């Protein structure tokens, strides 16, 4: 069961809501969806985070378990978060692990990677190297595409100029 699943169940119980009541608040047809989310069988769709937070009378950040330090880190590392999401679309889930001091999330303490039905941990340095490699490759491919497209445009313009001169 994920931490998010635990927080949803705990908060629902704190508010004395049944799974049926929470399901109705969220527009689900039955409690089975809530049951599957709380048991960890299903993930909460990203599109439903805000609705869950509202139904559970908390902020999306609180629902996700994000401290102000963690939110600041995520704001400062927006490009990294975007690449993590891109990798998620490709079937590679990377979750940040946080070091904890007196109950507050302070800094990244590594990452857990889930890929091809395997799960393993990598260090922050290995993750940074992966992200930099991905950024470098994307930059290279965009440069390569722009060079190809610009070269083709120049060629097309030359051909158009020659055609116009002949007319």
From TrEMBL:
<dbReference type="Pfam" id="PF01381">
    <property type="entry name" value="HTH_3"/>
</dbReference>
<feature type="domain" description="HTH cro/C1-type">
    <location>
        <begin position="8"/>
        <end position="63"/>
    </location>
</feature>
<dbReference type="InterPro" id="IPR001387">
    <property type="entry name" value="Cro/C1-type_HTH"/>
</dbReference>
<protein>
    <submittedName>
        <fullName>Helix-turn-helix transcriptional regulator</fullName>
    </submittedName>
</protein>
<dbReference type="GO" id="GO:0003677">
    <property type="term" value="F:DNA binding"/>
</dbReference>
<dbReference type="InterPro" id="IPR010982">
    <property type="entry name" value="Lambda_DNA-bd_dom_sf"/>
</dbReference>
